[in-house]
């Protein structure tokens, strides 16, 4: 059954009624509910468009975390051909929270890296809910360097609540792994396109998000700390997450305005989770046009421009 | 001794109007042993408890005063950045918080940068003032760091970073996160210019600061006992629901796990940095020496940073082996320089820049 978010009550009520009418029509062939169903479906669409047009930052946070939202694997499957995941950091372990490997994008060989949250209990545990340990970032570094060596454009898809806070992760140098990953990403001489597809959580996100072009899906979020984390530190009350989400400016619109991202990928009415194929297609078109544009520049230019882009951030607000 | 602190403090405060030059307490308690130390003794010993060797926090200005030769350095101006771009408000307005921190510390923001010489070696240094918003990294800090790196590249000299920070400045949201890649770009530029980048991690070095420029040094030093890590202890405990091991996320723990090169006592940091800089930049060992530094206790050999000294020694030997042909005097020179160097000064005079 579909998971409705708390603010989707009008939608869930209408859809329940539609379901009821449809069942009635199948059970009793004498009743014609088609007109009524159509009328209600129009109302659902209107309600959905209305609600999704004015989502608050906290509501967007909920949409960005929706369990049915398309994740890295969905993009890897639908947007790329021949995706060949690579595993391991060659030092300690494999970390499935970060997926990385080679693939073809519309025929062109590329490297892809992203966090995978998983979509059921088993896969969520396997991917550690998308929170990577140092091994994940070191694997990302490996694949970034591979892309650089073979002149493959890099596509990164960001979707993590943050890097994993655990004893082992700290012992093995979580901070160093993230720093090194950001550094490597900034240093590549190949085009990099980054898209925040769900949650862009803090350092765990930035480690793979310093692209020549950075985009966000319409209802994704990108922030220095989770709204809950900020609330518990600043207000000493994680219940104030809504306020934190609003104050921190974490939505795609806000980040576009602040000059942090290059563009917003529109989601279908009702969010990416209501029509994954559509949002994956739109994301693909955005990536394709960015890569086409970046292909005109040589490696040194790409690197110089990427550095300048980040150095300029925040200087003109 | 508690009666002294509670009795004397209000009186002192009223006499001097509670200015920041006045110590909070005349007697300071060692967090490790509970021993009470007179504030002047502590100040003279660079805020290291003489008996236990516990490193207390030291202000940015005091640190520079000790670090640079004769306490002299040119302070870099604080670059202008947008103030409160998000119009942030939690329990207080961010602009009000900034004003309070400025009054309290006398600094525009957390980063103090300076150019000067250390044992004759010219270098640029940045230090976080922890008392300013917990040393947190925001736009002002990021820009100050960018400018400091630019200056080091222009002067063709090493950059030394002293982080003391809880991480990103939350009140600046995503703009504070972006300081991680911004500072990282500058680290790369310095490295490409062939100049050394040395990090001295002090208590604490965590969050977005440790996950960017603090962990990208050519050489990593840390002060004894400094807390260093990515995630906060409370966050980890809440996530894994178990108690953290003894000594977790300390400088010594990081040394054991290969994340830093050596744990160095505060008094020995200038000499170590000068030595490393000279070796990395292929300068002669007698390039310069510390002049007119003031007296303090010679370094005690039974301090808790023993593994550091071992590592230090091993590293030295290794480098010297490689560097042997450079100069015949090289191997003995470090010892000689150390002997010549009168240990750190006692009277913190005003820095020319403050």
TrEMBL record, chain A:
<dbReference type="InterPro" id="IPR001095">
    <property type="entry name" value="Acetyl_CoA_COase_a_su"/>
</dbReference>
<dbReference type="GO" id="GO:2001295">
    <property type="term" value="P:malonyl-CoA biosynthetic process"/>
</dbReference>
<protein>
    <recommendedName>
        <fullName>Acetyl-coenzyme A carboxylase carboxyl transferase subunit alpha</fullName>
        <ecNumber>2.1.3.15</ecNumber>
    </recommendedName>
</protein>
<dbReference type="GO" id="GO:0006633">
    <property type="term" value="P:fatty acid biosynthetic process"/>
</dbReference>
<dbReference type="GO" id="GO:0009317">
    <property type="term" value="C:acetyl-CoA carboxylase complex"/>
</dbReference>
<dbReference type="InterPro" id="IPR011763">
    <property type="entry name" value="COA_CT_C"/>
</dbReference>
<keyword id="KW-0275">Fatty acid biosynthesis</keyword>
<comment type="pathway">
    <text>Lipid metabolism; malonyl-CoA biosynthesis; malonyl-CoA from acetyl-CoA: step 1/1.</text>
</comment>
<comment type="similarity">
    <text>Belongs to the AccA family.</text>
</comment>
<keyword id="KW-0444">Lipid biosynthesis</keyword>
<comment type="function">
    <text>Component of the acetyl coenzyme A carboxylase (ACC) complex. First, biotin carboxylase catalyzes the carboxylation of biotin on its carrier protein (BCCP) and then the CO(2) group is transferred by the carboxyltransferase to acetyl-CoA to form malonyl-CoA.</text>
</comment>
<keyword id="KW-0436">Ligase</keyword>
<keyword id="KW-0443">Lipid metabolism</keyword>
<keyword id="KW-0547">Nucleotide-binding</keyword>
<keyword id="KW-0963">Cytoplasm</keyword>
<keyword id="KW-0276">Fatty acid metabolism</keyword>
<dbReference type="GO" id="GO:0003989">
    <property type="term" value="F:acetyl-CoA carboxylase activity"/>
</dbReference>
<dbReference type="GO" id="GO:0016743">
    <property type="term" value="F:carboxyl- or carbamoyltransferase activity"/>
</dbReference>
<comment type="subunit">
    <text>Acetyl-CoA carboxylase is a heterohexamer composed of biotin carboxyl carrier protein (AccB), biotin carboxylase (AccC) and two subunits each of ACCase subunit alpha (AccA) and ACCase subunit beta (AccD).</text>
</comment>
<keyword id="KW-0808">Transferase</keyword>
<keyword id="KW-0067">ATP-binding</keyword>
<dbReference type="GO" id="GO:0005524">
    <property type="term" value="F:ATP binding"/>
</dbReference>
<dbReference type="InterPro" id="IPR029045">
    <property type="entry name" value="ClpP/crotonase-like_dom_sf"/>
</dbReference>
<dbReference type="Pfam" id="PF03255">
    <property type="entry name" value="ACCA"/>
</dbReference>
<feature type="domain" description="CoA carboxyltransferase C-terminal">
    <location>
        <begin position="39"/>
        <end position="293"/>
    </location>
</feature>
